[in-house]
């Protein structure tokens, strides 16, 4: 957060005195038009573009979607009793996933929205704009992610696709945090649309081609979102010397930001656990709980050690306390054990505070990279850490430690089709899909490849989008 | 929201400089009493009335309520194993409904409370008073709604009656939004008590006599609450020319209001889905999610198109973004499909913004109707739209599309008692109650009648209450 | 809340002008060091201590914890189908407890954090410090509580131990409310560590030796936390005459405090119900809902009756409205009936308002006891009331009213081992553990003993800790 690193006062973007709601950088154009009438016309043009986008989304939703079977009244399994082949009402998909879905939904709309209010002049605009971009991204992400998993030419809509759309939206909001204040709202909306498409492709490639797992989306969501946003910011950097006084937080906006932080912190276990099931889900909750607790304590401690005054550093408290949730994401459902989660949390808290204190100013000096909300410290580096921890845990995962559920944890490690090994396993697990019979090290390698691919796709995609 | 429609600055009520907590319009009386001692006496009288109300509620609760069987330790099915006829611990009523109940509870107390803080002078009072009225209404609604479904002369208390009480309380709070600032607290409390009784009667009549369904309560809650409140406001209108400067919002109270908006937006799927089960519940979640997303985007777009300056219109963002949740309420659990939900959301967002911009000022000019929070634009018109969409969907509902679950969706369409059709259906559904063998069009007609009855009861009830 | 009782302006601690974040009372030392450099060194020392604590927690977690069986992939029951002896996926521990766990988590971090922002100068610091202390206490409480229930020399970590840790953390935060502003942060952290250890011992003694039940932790959490904190505050009292102007609330911080109040109020049913199951859980939700509603209404009424001006008393609205949740805690899952819960709520609301208005100033006059947040009125006295109500309900509990589930409600009342009575009961309940065959009155006696022991341990522990 630049107001604390002196170097940033000579940074890139012109943000002063222009409401984000109307347009950030638009001021230059406005001076040509010369009056309020011009701004109003631009705002109407923005409104028209958004209206057209919504109309397009309506058309695509009409042409391409259907209810998934559990939500489709015409599917007779919803009427029949279980003994007649109907769905078991004690184990419905909506019942199982809904509470965690709602927690994630609160994180996206309340958590991130309020965390961004720390920007003094943007408080209200940040919440409002986050709201618009998120509602747009949700609808587009349902479609973009669905294109990769069509069922009879239609996208199945249900709680898991809604959760997936919320995850994609998080990536967009993270990127927003890197560029907010440097672009017009319309540019941000276009950026979101491109990012979602790229996100869906990269996620599909990582999950289905590379078969690299990532329960909490630390690679596919956090690394992708952070480096995409940073690359856009890099592409947008300018030579001029703007005034960053508007980034200063004030007392009340910091209290508002804490609303965001606390909801993110409290509900993060749901984020890491929402898309897995059974004991994997349980471990994801436990590991995230421990990692976040240790990260919070560590962020306070390290923040005190690197401090140069006698107050809480609000940036560290509002952001670095959350890094443990990111850093434990990929391995959240693995056998990390509570102590492993605590260790990851300590590393993440330390890394994030050091990032805000030393790395962000250095990046700005060297690359002229301006990172409005410091997403590199909360999502970028902790996300990379998560990918590395995930690869390490994959390398250590043995059938002895995981039992038969090793093949549920890492589907690619399951025996290949038509082998006696698969038959043996299926005496216990019944419906296991055949896999690639990967070794632990091979799985770890693919995890690293997925991390690298995500990083590269994000950076290149972001640079192209920013130009 | 009057500070944005110039006409309203010449509107009805005297709200300035008098704390809602003590009394809004009471100032006139106070000038007679002439001093602070008078105000204190009045406040003590208010306290006494509230205390007596609570004592009455205690007595009625003592005389009339009992735990429903699932919560009653003396019911042996709670001790026995399922094989011995006990309740299945994997499918308990509390487990199934509790997460959505809590979401609704957050909407009532946090969502609505904070949404009302946009009134500059009333921020704290609005939250506090909403708190008091809600806690009072909950207890009274349990009794008032329960009187219609006695079991051995006693009201069964449980999670569904608690949810029903929360719904009734929402109707009261909506009405409050139309009249806040024009009455004394005591008048509002009396209004709440009358409204709950009328609400329970109308809901019972619509659901059990007309057999019109309304999963999200858009007719029974939103239409009822909005037009009841507007009718009270109409009855209270005065000729004098008050100062509405206190309705202006300021920066921080708008951020507080956004807390309310976002929690309402995020949890609205729970509101529309809380009282239905199985695939109906699942559809209610999906449809509401899509409708709200489309409505949010549309509200931003239309707001820009009708804007006359270059800033976000906060009223539209805080309110119109939610209209999609209201408008999809009645048909939320029907086979509306995602595209249908998106279409409803687009219509609702447009309608609501146009309501704030053009219809509310017109209503004020023509009828001298003052609507403090603009409930007509968020609850009134979108609620009517919901009723119409529900009737349309009912007219289109066929056994082909819904399978046997058509009769669960519209109980009145089930075959009549002692018919072979009922026997046939019960080979699949087992315990289906006999219905009226209604056709699709007939069901649609009854949906429209329920909408009309609700509107008429609300308006007449409100006019009588206001006088 | 002292700014409203004149007497308190002559009270004990020096809190003015020193940020809690840096150090509250540290000013005296600082004047010796004479400059900002000294404060910075102290802050670094604090950071080092916190870092060492976190390192110690990592070591203990490594040495002493393991996943509980439901979260342990190496436990084959997680892979196997139920028919092969695996866990039933329709009834997983994480699914059952997680939504309520999250509600409790929100209460601890968002609810209490924001409730404390009413302190004008401490708003941000209170939220931040609450965050740090809670994250530290969680980890330590998992270990401290676990030491009493080792499994093969290891502590089983899972959702119930996480819930237990959240409960222990609540006790610490309550104590914090009594002493905040009178100590250095480091002193508060040391206090927390001691308190958690004592808490775990007292809870284990009460639950396993005395076998006194307390579903909502009103005795083990609220009474313990309140009187421990008050005893520390008493031990810290000083003769000087400080300025309490910093305790004054202002408009916006009161709105922030209301965020805390409302989340606590809404989620309190989860707090009282989270650790029990089946119909007990259901009753805990219902009883808490009724008690809180009645308490809220009563607090408004009594507050008006004892008022000496014409405004809402914010302290009563922010705190006393919650006393019903505390007071119903011990008996929450018993057959209290809705009317009993309403009666308890009325008593608690009255008691709490009277506490703030008359008892707190009196305690300050007589004992020089300063209670920053008035925890005696919200947690202390209502907690004692809860213990008494629990004992009364235990005395009234008969097999006629509870059926066989009496022995699940009060395990000590179950028949002794190797008796025919136990065999008879187990024809219904199957796996009932043998008990002590206590009578109703005997169980009530043990409930009272547990209350007394908790009070005495808290007071003595607090006095020793404060010195």
Automatic annotation (TrEMBL), chains A, B, C:
MF term (GO), any: ammonium channel activity
Annotated membrane topology: Multi-pass membrane protein
Residue stretches spanning the membrane: 47-67, 124-143, 155-180, 186-205, 217-236, 256-276, 288-307, 336-359, 380-398, 444-464
The name this protein goes by in its record: Ammonium transporter AmtB-like domain-containing protein
Lineage, highest ranks first: Eukaryota, Metazoa, Ecdysozoa, Arthropoda, Hexapoda
Organism for this UniProt entry: Cloeon dipterum
GO BP: ammonium homeostasis
InterPro entries referenced in this protein's UniProt entry, alphabetically: Ammonium/urea_transptr (IPR029020), NH4_transpt_AmtB-like_dom (IPR024041), RhesusRHD (IPR002229)
GO cellular component: plasma membrane
UniProt KW Disulfide bond keyword: no
Subcellular location: Membrane
Keywords: Membrane, Transmembrane, Transmembrane helix
Recorded family membership: Belongs to the ammonium transporter (TC 2.A.49) family. Rh subfamily.
Main location: membrane
Domain of life the protein comes from: Eukaryota
